[in-house]
Amino acid sequence: MMVVRTPSPRPDGERVGVRASAPLRRRHSLAMSLFLIIPLTLSLSPLARGEGTFPARIAISGDSIPDSLTGVAGDPVRGRAIVMDRQVGLCLLCHSGPFPETRFQGNLAPDLAGAGARWSEGQLRLRMVDASRFNPDTIMPSYYRIDGLQHVAKAYAGKPLLEAQEIEDIVAFLTTLKTTAAK
Amino acid sequence: MIFRVCLAVLAILTASQLQAGEIAPEQRRSAYDTMSAGTRAMQDDDMANPATLWVLDGEALWSQPAGATQKSCADCHGDAKISMKGRAARYPQFDATTGGVVDLEQQINYCRRERQKATPLAFESHELLALSAWVSLQSRGARIEASTDPAAQKAIEAGRRLFTERRGQLNLSCAQCHDDNWGRSLAGATIPQGHPNGYPLYRLEWQSLGSMRRRLRNCLSGMRAELWPQDAPEYDDLEIYLMSRASSLTMESPAVRP
Questions:
Q1: Chain B residues with beta carbon closer than 8 angstroms to that of A102
Q2: Which of A86, A93, A149 comes nearest B169 by C-beta?
Q3: How large is the ipTM?
Q4: Over residues B116-121, mean pLDDT
Q5: A41-174 placed in CATH 3.40.1210.10
């Protein structure tokens, strides 16, 4: 298990991840990997090399985040609504899924049908939090990662795409999608 | 046989100009090709194309005296149907006097300021779009040629870098959609290759004529990226790169797009 970066709450109460300058971060990760070289080798996880800054403490284990980000159970009904919301979840811009009531779904990414059969809850959580760990070239944004972004509009700077509880809601919804889409 | 060898050599030479991921000339398609029959019909018929309203105003402005000199465009350039033929297919251009890239709207404003001694027209104003639509109309059917001006290459390269650089909260680059995923469906809309062969154009979504710059700003907003100021050189670089990327396509200005 690897604990990634602890944020310090700002005096104004806003929770923002600790940002180090890029070279500093690289030096830091080099030092980390020197110290952790044995455990990393043992874990055999290709994902361990991906770092990341998140608005809150996240414990990544292998290719998943087993624990809830908030400790509050996700609401699958709310999760479905966020997935369908084109201004909030943005999911249907790229994905299609079992949403017969809405038209204009995307086909840039895998169909969400069967996502709950393909992945465990923890695997889905990490794929939402930071999809770039699995493919650095992915078009899927990292919904809970706030570093490595450039030229972000002021209104969104330093903020994750979704709040932790929204991610929990989506994960709770995705785990219910057990049936793969008919070809 | 010799002809085939020549063709093969030509193909290799052309390909070597392309960077990885870029669309090969034979695969380049205008967004017109993927539009619905209704939208195409609207573009094809000038009486149905809403851009005609701007074109008519532009035609009138062309011969209207303006500024301290009380000169009109026509006083220097004569009949636009002759003097402006094919011109828009070669903009943006590198301008030696300013040392920067100038697009068609900026060229119109340059003339206003320097030749007519008139106030430049505001970005996206009705008058500027009208003049630009009238001038661009004279390039309908003209083939876009990539600029061979050595001075323009630096700007084209800068544009290429901007096009492939990830930006915004969504962490996307232009190329991820328009080079890698054109033809696929983004929320039900077919992703176009992103060629600027119809500007200024009437976009149904805008219910208005708009410039390429407006479209670029829309994309940046969609990525939740910082917008550059209206007169930033980044737009010029992107625009000149996009024209070079669209070379061999035909101008459709003023086009209609969904």
A1: none
A2: A149
A3: 0.85
A4: 98
A5: no
